[in-house]
Amino acid sequence: VYLKLARAHQAKGTLDDALSFYAQAATGTDEVIAMNEYGKLLITKRKFKEADSVFTELLNAYTTNPDFYYQRGRAKEMMPHNIKIDATDSTITSEKRLVPHITDYKQAVALDSTHQKALGELAVFYLKRKEYAMVEKLAFKALESYPTNVEIIGTLAQSYYYKGWNEEAITWFEKLIELGQSTQFIHEKLGNSYYKDRMYKLAIEQYLEALKFSPEDAYLHFTLAKLYNHTEDLKAAETHGLFAILYKDLPLDEEYYTLSRTYEMKKDWANAMKYVNRSLAENPENKNAEYTKAIVADNYFEDRRAVLKLYEDFIEKYSKTDYAKYDPVLRLARERRDKLNREIFMAEGEEEK
């Protein structure tokens, strides 16, 4: 009767009453169902220490139940700990003290190699530690018994993404979308994976999907502006570049620079100069913007000597760096400087005649 009352209160959301009746139903390990449900509700109510005690008592009686280890692991994970690290501890002992819940998750998997939730928790744990080989091992183990587990697939996709395996990341993020998953995170990371592999049109599709979740996200607009520059859809690049500036807090040097590049490709030299100057006002050390300013001036200014000075200033500033002799931008700047010098010399010679 107490168990039925506890379940009824839990179903209608009066959880304090449910806890009271569960406590009366869960009088010992013989009442295993009541104790299990009681422990889970204690976790829901953030009474982690009490939940830990309940599942420890159950495990003393039922030592081979994998789900009891998993539930106790949940309680331990969320419980605050005062941990003292002993330098003489072994790696295993240190892990037990620092992350005691991992031992329970591992025990759950040892007892049931198909325990999806325990495998998922372990995979996330190793993902945070950047131990990608372990993530993939656990994920593929879970997918053997449940090939459409979206939590596991998401963790696997992130593992490949963060270690830079773009093709594999694309495969698993696409799988998530095939299974009906759609979040800003998924579309953004899939879009970025396409971007890195220079699949610009596919990347644009995903960033536009991500934008539906956050229409005023300056980063998404900024990335779309760069992508549209790559596909030479300059009208769309201009639109998203302006939105990126509108929605972003300072600094804006990269957004101004990207927009100046859009106007440069459109041969709108006045706006290109306007936004490259704004970029440099935000960040005078933006090398790309400095070089772009010289190029824009080359097409916009009539005063050849003023243009020449921009190239000369750029060359003088960046010739002092350690890798200057390998810098292709410096090489282009020097070639243009030399050509301008010849043009100015020839023009002045013609005037003297």
Structure commentary:
This protein has 20 helices and no strands. By secondary structure, it is mainly α. Among the domains are: 1-112, Tetratricopeptide repeat domain (Serine Threonine Protein Phosphatase 5, Tetratricopeptide repeat), CATH 1.25.40; 113-162, no CATH class. α3 runs antiparallel to α4 (48-61), α4 (48-61) runs antiparallel to α5 (66-78) and α6 (91-98) crosses α7. The longest helix is centred in the last third of the chain and has 25 residues, at 328-352. The radius of gyration is 31 Å and the shape is elongated.
In short:
With 353 residues, the chain is mainly α.
Helix-strand string: HHHHHHHHHHHHHHHHHHHH
Shape: elongated
* Spatial separation of the terminal alpha carbons: 114 Å
List low-confidence stretches.
Answer: none
Question: What's the CATH H-level homologous superfamily of the domain at 1-112?
Answer: Tetratricopeptide repeat domain
* CATH level 1 class label of the domain at 1-112: Mainly Alpha
Write the layout of secondary structure elements.
Elements (H helix, E strand, L loop, with lengths): L1 H11 L2 H11 L6 H13 L3 H14 L4 H13 L12 H8 L1 H12 L4 H13 L3 H14 L4 H13 L3 H13 L5 H13 L3 H14 L4 H14 L2 H14 L5 H13 L3 H14 L4 H14 L3 H15 L9 H25 L1
Helix pairs in contact: 1-2, 2-3, 3-4, 3-5, 4-5, 5-7, 6-7, 7-8, 8-9, 8-10, 9-10, 10-11, 11-12, 12-13, 13-14, 14-15, 14-16, 15-16, 16-17, 16-18, 17-18, 18-19, 19-20
